[in-house]
Structure formats: C-alpha cells, structure tokens
Amino acid sequence: MRLSFSQRGPIIAAAAGAAVACLGWLGLPNPFGTPIAGLGCALLGWAVARAQRPRDLASNGHPARDRGARAPALSVVQPAPAGPPANVTPFPTSAISSVTAASVAVADAPQRAIARAELESFPVYVDLLNRQLGSVIQVSEGAAQTLLTQLMDVDGRITNLLQFIQTAGNDGGAEASIREIEQRLSQSRQMLTNLVEQQRAAAEDALSHRQRFAEETGSVLEVLDRVHRVAKQTTMLSLNVSIEAARVGDLGKGFAVIGHEIRNLAAEVQQLAHDVHAKVSSLMDSVASEILHQAERREQSEHEAMDDISEAIGALSGNLGTLLSHQRQVLSRVEAENEKIGAPIMAMMGSIQFQDIVRQQIEQLISMSSEVDTHMRLVGDSLEDGACAAEFETLAQRLEAMSGAYVMENQRQDHRTAMGQADAGGAAAVPKIELF
Amino acid sequence: MMKPILLVDDSATMLASLTSILGKAGLAFVTAPDGQSAIDKVMGGLAPALVITDYHMPGMHGVDLIAKLRRLPATRFTPMLVLTTDSQQDKRSAAKAAGATGWLVKPVEPPALLQVVRQLVSQAA
C-alpha cells in the first residue's frame, strides 16, 4: 500500500510527535524542546491519521476490516481540500497549526461525520495514555521507595558493622587488654630494677663481710705476733738463766737445765706461732679470694639474667606498642571510611527526590493530555455542527493557559521554546536555597 | 530532648528521602502527608523545632499551611521552610509574606539541607 504525502503527513506527525514526547520524557534533547509539544503533535496527528485511514484504504482498494458498517460509505469519499477552509483560524505555532488545519481540512459532510466518530474515540487514547502515565508514577514511586529502603538497610548494616569495630576497639577490648599488659610489664620492669638494687646491696654486703673477715683474721695474726714476741723474750730470759746458772757453778746446774728447757719451749712456741700465722694468712687469702670470686661470678650471672629479662620486657613492650598503634590506625581508618561511605549514601538519599520531580512533570502531562482531549472534542463538535474553529479556544490558547501551572523553570523555558516565545530570562538568578 | 522536625509532603518518596537524611544525621522528625494532618498534629500537642513543607499539595498548599500554623501558639515563632520544585519569585514572596523562614528548591542536596536545618534549629533552641 502506497500512501500519498497528504496521507502520510498526519501519520508522520503522529509518529514524530510521539517520538518527541518520548525523548522529552526521557530527558533527551529534541527539536521541539519539550515533551508537551510532542504530545500535542502525537495526539493531533494520531487523530487525523485515524480519520484518514478508512478513506485511504478504500482509495487503495483494500476495505477497512475494522470499520464495519461505515466502510462502504468510505468508497464515495472525495479527497480533502488542499488547504484549510476560510472560516478556520490557524494556530499561531507552525507545528500545531499545520496538524490542526489538516484535521479541519476534512470538512465535507461524510468526512466530518467520520472524523467526528474517530475523534469520539480520542478520549479512549487519552485515558489509556493517562493510565499509562499514572502507572509510571506508581511504579517509579514504588521503585524509589524500594531503593530508599534498601539503601537505608545497607547504610544501617554498614553503620552497625563500623560501630561494632569501633566498640570492639574502644570499649574493654584489645586496647584495654594491651593497657593492662603494659601496666604489668611496667610493674615487672620496676621489680627487676628493685632486684638489681638488692643484688648490688648484697654484693656490697659480701664485700663488707670479706673486709670484716680480713680484719678479724688480722687481729688473730696480731695475737700470734705477740705470742711470737713473748717466745723470743722467753728465749732471751732462758739464756740469761743459763748464764747466771753457769756463774754459780754446780749449784746452778739445775737452773741451767730449766733454762735450757725454757729456751726449747720458747723456740717451740715461736715455731708454732709462726706456723699458725702462715696458715691463718693462707686461709685468709684463700677465703677472701673465694668470696670475691663468688661475688663476681654471681654478679655477672645475675647481671646477664637481668639484661635478658629487661631485653625481653622491652621487646614485648615494643610489640604491644606496635599492636596498639596498629589498632589505633585501624580505628582511625574505620572512622575515615565511615565518613567516606556516609557521604555518597546521604547523596543517594537526596537523589531519590528526582522521582517526585518526575511525578509532578508527568502529572502536568496528564493534565495537558486532558486539555488536548477536551479540545479534540470541541474540534469534533465543530466538524459536525459546522461551527467555526474560532468560536472555541485554540489548542495554543489552551496550552498557554496551562503554562501558569508549570512549577519548574525548565518547564516554562520548554514551553516558551515550543511556542516560539521570547526567553523571559532572569530565572537563573533565583537561588535554590534562600533564607528570608 | 530535642524537638522533632515536622515534615509535610504528599509525596511518599519525598518524605522517605527527607526522613532518611534527617534520621541519618540524628535528627528527630514527624511526618504529615498534607497540610490538615500537620495542623491536626500541632493542635494535638506537637511543638516542632522546625517545619518543612511542600508547596503543591492537595487540599491546602504549603503557604496556606504556614499562614495557618503562624496563628497557632505552638508554631507562632517556629522556623518554617518551603521545599518545592517551584522556583517562581512571586510564590517565594507570597511565602515570605505568609511567614515562611526560607525557600528550598527540589532536589535539595543533603549537606545543604542539613546545614540550613541545623542553623534554624540551633537559632530556635
């Protein structure tokens, strides 16, 4: 089936209008600048295409199956006049006025009846469109709610997890245990220091003992020296006895023997004192040396043990410090990540507001389609009654009247662009947040 | 105990968005789906720290609500914000004349919203 330009025109207008409306709803740029203009074109084009279709099919030799009893009448339909009738006032915008003129161009009586019948079915399409748009609102609102619920669930889980980590790190957890261990290590280190002091005191005590032993031993040696001196004097005394005994002759022989024995006894005492002195001196040296040696060995051994313990405590304390520092770093990182995660989640919670904006825009479209519906009924009435199109409000006038209901500046801007109006300007200067 | 923030909007999505933002920031809130419900809550004893209302709502629009709340003792001096997609200056002026404290255009970014809310709540406290 081949269609002429006049036949294809309304269909193309309808298709283009629908495409523009879709582009507008999707937020994509389109030549009309607004989904509303596209919607108008789609509705009007669709209506004219529907009105023309039976005639087109008849002229091409294919009866319209869905036309029923009206189909035979279509065979006598003459082609529509090329231009609008003289009593039709064209709409001010080119896109809308051309489509409206096309619809009004089907002005002969049978055509008007058919066009009116088709226009009567227009509310069905409008109702369908409004229902679909309403469904879009409901679905998007439900989806937004679900998204937000899930987002809050994710946020809650992340918050709980981070709080658990922070609580485990701060309250009675590892840090407290490490603190306790550090405290005990400090006590152990203090005890070690005390022990070292005690050992030093013990070493000094041992030295003191050694000195006292040497002093006591020295006093023994002095006694032995006195014994030695007494023995020498005794020897001298015995010699004097022997001399005096010899001087008296035989009478002194007894004394001579006594003197001799005394001398021998003194010599023996002297020898004995000498031997004891030597042995005591030797014993004193040996004992003093042993005491000193033992004290030195003990001090060295204990010193080494202390060093090992001190080193171990130091290493343990260092490890605990590293552990504590690491834990603090983890907590600090957790807090930083918490803030980093919180910001985009918060931003997403705000971004969900787009659904409310879309809802209002769709509600505007629903109102607009209802206006177009009303207009199309009037157009249909005018076709049947032969009323002048200028007697009722033009579509452009209706759309212009609706512009007061726009809530967003971009809607107003799109309307001005679609209607070929000058940019009012100045709207961009209005701040998004204003405190009075 | 901190007074709640009264949120009035006919959009369930907006209420969900605002409550999640305020809740995450640790702020208390009460919601109302329309102006009359908000008035009923205030007359029922609610004394909010702040009122944030939508402009376009069925039954009663936001500026009317603010004007009526200004006549109630509990909200006579309460800061009130209009949060709307509408950005027309004449409506802002009407809101200001009715007693609104400020005007926010949707979508409002959470940090900016929280800054304004905290500022007004701290001033009112």
From TrEMBL, chain A:
GO terms for biological process: signal transduction. Keywords: Transducer. It comes from Xaviernesmea oryzae. Residues 166-287 form the Methyl-accepting transducer domain. It comes from the Bacteria. This is Methyl-accepting transducer domain-containing protein. One of its GO terms (cellular component) is membrane. Signal peptide: none annotated. Gene3D superfamilies: Methyl-accepting chemotaxis protein.
Automatic annotation (TrEMBL), chain B:
GO terms for molecular function: kinase activity. GO terms for biological process: phosphorelay signal transduction system. The modification 4-aspartylphosphate is found at D54. Keywords: Kinase, Phosphoprotein, Transferase. The keyword Kinase applies. Residues 4-121 form the Response regulatory domain. PROSITE patterns: RESPONSE_REGULATORY. This is Two-component system sensor histidine kinase/response regulator.
